[in-house]
Write a structure and sequence with these properties.
mainly alpha, 10 helices, globular
């Protein structure tokens, strides 16, 4: 099957889902109180995007996501590289990292609420905590993906440590690191949303939770579409860069 056919099938599937969303509630097949028609949701989305309260909530959420990511990314990358390069450190801490990584992070949210309250620090700390483990695991995998024979050949030709890092490690690790960037941002964004929905007075997650609790379904689905659009845009942008640099491995 060609790439054009695949894209056509994807668009056809998307069109079918949107058509069902648009017409089934209006025909009474689905209760419009639970699933408002797509046209009503899009009209509500446009209306919400014009409200200053929504602008402020989006700004708060964006700042929380960025700060948490800036904290989690270098910390997780440093620990991941250390675990991969230092055999002693890796043998001690890798089992613990795998264990904590397998535990749902949402069970730790009450602890963050007790320590930080329900303000900005709590949401940033929880999102960073939710993200740092995937960064550690991805950084470890990125270092381990570097072929030892490439490093050996570079050293045999007298390459310095900086040259090996720039010419061997960075090109080999880049596809894995970009994939880690994409996945860790999903964890980071999810962590902020969970914290805002369950313990917050600000942010777009707080607004979505309020809309859901008050059965304001058009507003709720409008918020979901907004968040989905932002997440998909970021994911596809990173995926595009990931495909472009993956050829460095060859």
């Amino acid at each position: 099957m060609s790439q054009v056919q695949i894209v056509a099938l994807r668009l056809a599937l998307l069109g079918a889902v949107l058509a069902a969303w648009a017409f089934l509630p209006r025909w009474g097949v689905v209760d419009p109180l639970l699933l408002p028609p797509l046209g009503d949701v899009l009209a509500m989305l446009v209306k919400q995007l014009g409200r200053p309260l929504v602008h402020e909530a989006i700004g708060v959420t964006a700042l929380e996501v960025v700060v948490a990511f800036v904290i989690a990314l270098p910390l997780g990358a440093a620990l991941g590289v250390l675990a991969a390069e230092n055999e002693y450190f890796g043998q001690i801490f890798k089992p613990m990292l795998f264990y904590v990584f397998s535990v749902p992070k949402s069970i730790f949210l009450p602890m963050f609420i007790l320590v930080f309250g329900i303000g900005f620090p709590q949401k940033v700390a929880y999102a960073a905590f939710s993200t740092v483990f995937i960064v550690i695991m991805s950084a470890t995998a990125a270092v381990e993906s570097v072929k030892a024979e490439h490093v050996l050949v570079a050293r045999s030709y007298g390459a310095t440590r900086a040259q090996i890092l720039r010419r061997i490690y960075v090109p080999s690790m880049m596809p894995v690191l970009l994939e880690a960037l994409r996945i860790s941002m999903i964890f980071n964004f999810t962590g902020v949303m969970i914290a805002e929905m369950y313990a917050s007075r600000t942010g777009i997650g707080h607004l979505i939770a309020n809309w859901g609790e008050n059965y304001q379904m058009p507003e709720l689905f409008a918020g979901v579409i907004l968040l989905a659009a932002v997440a998909i845009a970021f994911n596809e942008a990173v995926r595009h860069v990931e495909v472009r640099v993956s050829k460095w491995r060859t």
